[in-house]
Amino acid sequence: MVKCFDHVTVVVRDAEAAKRFFGLLGFKEDKYTVISGEVFSNYMGVPDITAEHVTLVLAGAEPRCEVQLLVYQSPAPVANPLIEDLHAIGFNHICFAVENLESELMRLRAAGFETRTEVLDFHERKLVFLRGPEGITVELAEHEVSRD
After folding, report:
1. pTM of the prediction?
2. I need a surface site. Which of 82, 108, 129, 137 has the fewest CB within 10 A?
């Protein structure tokens, strides 16, 4: 049985830009290594893999929450022309809960990051899609406080 979410891995060309984006969401670099060789090629199903592997950790999160970045040196990364198409089969988006959506949006917009949508009220949450590194979709969600 699954215990909790562990990590998501994002292939990027610009690790610094991705670290900046996720850094604004509270992630800090925890580990850096280069993966290569037969073991990783077999595990990943990518012949002749050599890639920088950067582990970002959400500061103070329990349980631990990671975003892992892969920067391929070989083979060259393959562009996904449907990365922003939210009706394509496969990975759609990742969502992070926030305490105050409006203040998060102000910080992100001030840093030059774009939203993909207006804020939506849905299922007792305020939601918004952001344009993340390499065009991935990142959602932020502010849960309404229960009035029990």
Report:
1. 0.90
2. 82
Average pLDDT on 107-121 reads 94
Measure the CA–CA gap between 77 and 15, rounded to whole angstroms.
13
3-state secondary structure 43-62: HHCCCCCEEEEEEEEECCCC
Ordered DSSP codes for 101-138: HHHHHHHHHHTTPPBSS--EEETTEEEEEEE-GGG-EE
Three-state secondary structure call for residue 80: coil
**Tell me, what's the pLDDT at 3?**
86
Taking alpha carbons only, the member of 77, 16, 67, 6 closest to residue 44 is 77
Q: Which domain holds residue 138?
A: 94-143
pLDDT of residue 148: 53
86 belongs to a structural domain: no
Centre a 10 Å sphere on the Cβ of residue 65 and count the other Cβ atoms it contains: 19
Q: Which of 42, 74, 106 is the last residue of a domain?
A: 74
**Residue 92 DSSP code:** -
How many domains does one find in the chain?
2
Q: What is the CATH number of the domain that holds 110?
A: 3.30.720.110
